[in-house]
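Researcher: Structure prediction, please.
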Amino acid sequence: VWRHVLGSAQSDDELIFEETDELFWVGLDKTDSGRYIVVSSRSKTRAESLTLDLEAAGAKLTMVHPREADHRYSVEHWGDSFYIITNMGGCVNSKLVKTPVARPGKANWTEVLPYEENTKLDYLVCFKGYIVINGRCN
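Model: Predicted structure follows.
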């Protein structure tokens, strides 16, 4: 992933992320708030995400949580928090947690929507006053 400043020479571009493990693929998303780009590196069983603050000139990528075995998660932003759908702790169908933007690591994750075995959480969309979660119940 390269950072390019419009109007500058391509030779001035900065490499901000490189995935060297061929089992992982990289994705870029802009959060619903429009404030962050989320760089995600994923495999079938692991994920890690880094955020880039678009309102801070020259900002560096910030790790949400490094990859670990059998842990997948996705990140969304609103207000002072990142909202994360995660399978942490053996939650096969995932649960929703949040963490302060300033301290995104897993140690700071607090439960928003607890795990329910018969409810699968797929993704969420943040609006000004509420969050919509897409999923399904059995």
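Model: The radius of gyration is 16 Å.
Researcher: Thanks, that helps.
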